[in-house]
Amino acid sequence: MPSQLIQWFPGHMAKTRRMIGERLKDVDAILELLDARIPESSRNPEIRAIVGDKPMLTLFTKSALSDPAVNEAWKRAFAAEGQSSLFIDCITGQNLNKIVPALRELCADKVARYEQKGMQGRALRVMVVGIPNVGKSSLINRLCGAKKAKVEDRPGVTLTGQWVKANGLELLDMPGVLWPKFEDRRVGENLAMTGAIKDTIMDTETLAAALAGRLRGLYPELLCERYKLSGIPEDMENWELLEAIGRKRGFLVSGGQVNYERSAAALLDDFRSARIGKISLERPFC
């Protein structure tokens, strides 16, 4: 899986990195969006070096889909490092009203200079960065109260930077880009499992089997409850677990064999929509 990603994204990654560097002079602050289910895998390891001393607020998106207890652990970990962050959700509206005050607090010195120059109430100019499908366009539309940015539940919709005016902000929506170190297989899997990578460029059955194994280790009770499993033997292989899920869902073909393609699609969709439960694949202490 990692090699597929490296081959598919390098030019786009370099272009977006360059674009971010070129547009820094136009903004007062950065909004960094991370997927609350996979904060480390969805975080750009280069972003802090690129943005330098620009104030940055990290938003953990899709937090209604992630484990609340793990969210709290991530909040404590970021606070311990002196990093400003909020857990938000664009569907429920969680903490969206705290974003502008948090940005104005981060940019207090600049806001004061604007006011000294007679520019009270001047909108802050903020760059929005994050991986594909992390919720940048959904956030912008919620802040604006109107459909200003393109939104689709698939990666790669925003292709060029666009300015959008919101209440007290001017937002620069940058293209989503996959930054992580793809030599780490777990990172590639996390991005694929959450939908940051298009399903069409990978083997979804292998991915779903890996997800079944991860859920077996992290949330066995939720997995058994969702798919009516009486238990999961310790020696059961990931493929066997996916097969068991398919049988319970009735995804069978002639001869009583499991349809692995349908089973994989169902498991991935159930995870991404939180029908299995509120799940986090990464913890700050792991």
User: Which class do the helix and strand fractions yield?
Assistant: alpha/beta
Number of helices: 12
CATH superfamily of the largest domain: P-loop containing nucleotide triphosphate hydrolases
> Tally of extended strands?
6
Topology:
Blueprint: H1 2-8, H2 10-23, E1 29-35, H3 47-51, E2 56-61, H4 68-80, E3 85-87, H5 99-106, H6 108-116, E4 124-130, H7 136-144, E5 162-166, E6 169-173, H8 185-193, H9 204-218, H10 220-227, H11 238-249, H12 260-272
Parallel strand pairs: 1-2, 1-4, 2-3, 4-6
Antiparallel strand pairs: 5-6
Helix pairs in contact: 9-10, 9-11, 9-12, 11-12
Describe this structure in words.
The chain is of the alpha/beta class. The protein folds into two domains: 172 residues, 3-Layer(aba) Sandwich (Rossmann fold); 70 residues, Conserved Hypothetical Protein Ylqf, Chain: A, domain 2 (Orthogonal Bundle), CATH 1.10.1580.10. It is 43% helix and 12% strand. The protein is built from twelve helices and six strands. α9 crosses α10 and α9 packs across α11. The protein is elongated, with a radius of gyration of 21 Å.
What are the defining features of this structure?
286 residues, alpha/beta, Rossmann fold, Conserved Hypothetical Protein Ylqf, Chain: A, domain 2, 2 domains, six-stranded mixed β-sheet, 12 helices, 43% helix, elongated, disordered N terminus
Quick structural gist:
With 286 residues, this protein is of the alpha/beta class.
